[in-house]
Amino acid sequence: MCGIIGVSKPAGNAIIETYDGLMMLQHRGQDSAGIVTFDENKFCEQRGAGLVIDIFTQKNIANLTGRFGLGHCRYTTAGNSESLEEAQPFFVNAPFGIFLIHNGNLTNTNELRDRIQNTYRRHLRTDSDTEVLLNVFADKIYQELKAAPKRSDVDTVFAATKKLMKRVTGAYSVISLIDKVGLFAFRDPYGIRPLVFGKKKTTKGTEWIFASEDVAIKTLGYEVVRDVNPGEAILITKDGEMISQQCAEGKLFPCIFEYIYLARPDSMLNEISVYKTRLRMGSSLAKQIKAANLEIDSVMPVPDSGRPIALQISQDLGIKYREGLVKNRYIGRTFIMPGQSQRQKSIRRKLNTIELEFRNRNILLVDDSIVRGNTMKKIIEMCRAAGAKKVYVASGAPPVRNPDVYGVDIPTRSELVAHNLSEKEVCRVIGADALFYQKVEDLVEAARAGNPTVDGFHTGMFDGKYPTPEVTEELLQKVEFEGRGAQTNGKISLPNI
Hints:
By secondary structure, the chain is an alpha+beta fold. The chain is 33% helix and 22% strand. It has helices at 15-24, 52-55, 58-62, 109-118, 129-147, 153-167, 214-219, 257-262, 274-292, 307-317, 340-350, 374-385, 423-430, 440-448, 460-463, 473-487, and strands at residues 3-8, 32-38, 43-49, 68-74, 90-92, 98-103, 173-178, 182-187, 196-202, 205-211, 223-227, 232-237, 242-246, 268-269, 272-273, 298-301, 325-327, 351-353, 362-367, 390-395, 434-437. The strands form 5 sheets. The protein has a 7-stranded antiparallel sheet with strand order 3-2-4-1-10-9-11. Strand 20, helix 13 (423-430) and strand 21 form a beta-alpha-beta unit. The radius of gyration is 23 Å and the shape is globular.
C-alpha cells in the first residue's frame, strides 16, 4: 500500500496540486515521499524520508517546476524501509527518460530481477520491486522501438505495456512520466490496488489527474471520471489529449482490505463507498453480537477506522455509543509502521483512556481488524486498568490467517495471531471476555452491495483464495521465507518460481 498521484496541466505549474494531493494520501504511507516534475525540457526531483510535510519546504517546492507532476508516499512492503535510495519515483534515462511510481507488490520479482540482470544486462541499485518493474517497462519499450522504429512513440508505449502485462504478475497500479510522450498510467489485469483519474476543464485546456483514491481528486477540485480499469493503460499526451487502450483482458478483484482499513472513509473505490461498506460491516456483526445475548453497557470504537463499524453496531443493537479511547493524532498508523518493536512501542503512546467511560462497565470494543494481536491486547489491558468489568471485542475483518502478497504488510503466518488458532483461542490470547469476527461471506457482501458488477475480491489473507493464478502454496512458503529474512535484516537469495 502506497499513495500515488500524477498531474497534467496544459499551462502552469503542477507542483502545488501534486503536493496537496500527496498530503491527501499520506495515510497510505509514512516511510518516505518523493515528487518529480517535468516541463518537457528537464525533470526536477525531490525525495526524502518521513512525512510529506517534513520533506517538502517552501524552498525546494519552488524548484519543482513543470506542467507534469508525479508524487509518491511510501509504505514499505518490499525492499528496505530505511533506504532513501528506495524512495520513489524511480528513474531510467533510456529509452526516452522515464520516471515511475508504483503501488502494489509483484509476485515474480526474483524471476524478473534475474532476467533484467542476466538477459537485459541492466544494473539494479535497490531491492525494490518498483525498480524491477521500471526496468521491465523500459526494456519492453526498447524492444518495441527496435521491432518497429517507424511506429509512433505513443503506439510504442502501449505495445510495450501489453508485453509487460504478459510478463509481470502480482498487483501494480502505476503512474509514469515519459519524456516526449506524456503522463502514462496503467493498472494490473485484476485491479487489485486502486487507481482513479479525473479532469478539470479550464480556459487553457483540460487538466488531468491520477490518484490512489478519489478523495485527492475531489479535494483539488477535479471531476472524477472513473477508476482505471483492470488491464487498462491511459496516456495524457504532452498536448493534453487522453488516449486509452485495453492492454490485457481484465477482471476486477480489488483488495478487500482497502475497504476495511487502508482507504479513507470518504473515498469511493471501484464505485464502492468505503464508508457505506464499513456501515454494512457493522450491521452484519451486530447480528452475531445480538445472538450472544451479552450484557453490554456501551459500544466503543478503536479510532479511527473502527468508528463507522461501531456506530452501526450501536444503532442496530440500541446500545449507547461512547468514545473512551483518545487518539494522539501525531502518531502514525500503527499497522503500517515498519518493524514489530516500533509498532508495540507506539500503541501506548497512540491511545489514552477516558476512565469515566470504563469504570464498572461492560464494554464492546470495535476495531477494523486484528492482525498481529499486539494492539488489541494492549488496548484491552488499558481498558481493564481504567476499570472495565468486561471487555468484549468485535473485529470488522475475519481472522487474518495468511500472508498478503499484493502490497499489505502481512508477510509471515507466524506473525498472525489467528494463524493455527481458533477464535476462542485468539480471544484468550488477547485477553478479551468474548470475541466476534466478521464472516468472510458477510464482508464480501458488504463491499459488493456497493457495486454488484465487481467480479470478486481479494480475500486471500482470510481464506487463502488469491485472485492471480501464480499464488500457490510454493510461492506463499517463499514469501514466508523472505519475511523471516527481513525480520532479521538478512539478505536471502531465493530460487525463482
